[in-house]
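Let's do one together. I've listed all components of the complex below, 537 residues spread over two lines.
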Amino acid sequence: MIEARVYRADVIDAAGVAEVFRRERSRVLATMIRVVDGDFDLAEELVQDAFLAALEGWKDGLPDEPRAWLIGVARHKAIDAIRRRVRYRHRTHALAADLQASPLYQASPEELTVADDRLRLIFTCCHPALAREAQVALTLRTLCGLSTDEIARAFLVPTATMAQRLVRAKHKITAARIPYEVPTQGALAERTDAVLAVIYLVFNEGYAASRGDALVRRELCGEAIRLGELLVELTRASEAVGLLALMLLQDSRRDARVDADGELVLLEDQERARWDQVAIARGAALAELALTGGGPYALQAAIAAVHARAATAAQTDWALIAALYAALAARWPTPVVALNHAVAVAMAEGPAAGLALIDELAAELADYYLFHAARADLLRRLARDREAAAAYRGALARVGTEIERRFLERRLAEVSAS
Amino acid sequence: MQYLLLIYTPENAEAAMPPAEGRTMMADYLTFTQNIRKAGNFVAGDALQPTHTATTVRVRDGKVTTTDGPFAETKEQLGGYYLINAKNLDEAITIAAQIPGAKHGSIEVRPIMVFAPSA
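Okay, and this is what the predicted structure of the assembly comes out as:
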């Protein structure tokens, strides 16, 4: 299959077109996928062609309704494209006739622009019948307009592998007839969870960078936040609000969490003046709004908001954070949540209290480097240097990124020296 | 659109099932089949004899070889199937989830490939 052409705003340089491209591409694409009955590849081609046509057609200025103009052009090209395509030979003529006769095709471009099809698009990309990695790739490709190459680089896989992943996912959507619909009420909550998981995964891939050298991959975080905003706008679901709040609050610290040499700076050591106060204000307000729902993202956002509101690390309300983690652990009892709860307790009540809780998790988290790192830190605070050194070595044996490795090595040197 | 729902269940556990439980399962299958017939989704469906009755056939260099047993040894074995009509994968998944065997086994949902008449 032909790799779909790369969308790049910078190759469409006529006045205004690039801006419209950035603003409208995913929405026009989402509608065109519906018009051509779920054929993602064809829709991508049509949208690309429509924007190329806009370069010529908008020379004398933008039309009144750019979106309707683009959909109108793409729709006309759909019939031609379906006739022309050889690789779908078996369904060409029937499909072209079907399309022309369908109510969707008969509708005017203005009518087609009324519904925002991006919600269908999100739910289809994140359909549970697709593997999680395919959901992520497809979401970044279609909703965010990232090229296959960009997605491959973000996830450290060869471009050919990523291209194949996308081709397979799109083929499954067509072949298994994954519906291009917003799920019905009964399935909506569960399906929304899957969408939120994909968005948060994209964010974390950009923020935490579990592999490789680049600690901050701004683009992925930015895309995840934009997707979060879109989901809030389209669904108003409280967990979507919670996730958006969480991402904004975490992202507000992006400039402070790495120093001038690219080294990781812990939350307590960060220069708080470098936190993005606009993002914090927005994130904290959304976190409060989401907390009435009491979902896991809302609780995590509330925790992030407590950190964000503390003027200095020493003024952090650790008792409140420990209580929020306890609420999170009560409903989602995972070992990682328990680890975070233990760390908060250590801050609120002293390292010994936290260490006792952490040691209970040894069996479950033996392979998790942050378990060893957190334990090492508490032992260091208790001046049990030899045990701390052993725990830092345990963390180093399991750590993923270079920046985190260097941080742990510095701490290991400190406890070994004293 | 047609989907084949392949029912994989732990054959030994089912064989060891107390008779009362077995009767309940049969009744559940009958109800399920009636339901999808009434709803117009049913195309075909059968239960299969256990895998110890299976024979696997291969032709290599024109020579037919047969081996005793199923194609692959798996934890759960193909024990039956339904061929259904559904408007999309979501409907097929909803129907698959109602198959009694889904509670203790797994249902593989496979879309049927449609070949176009050659032009």
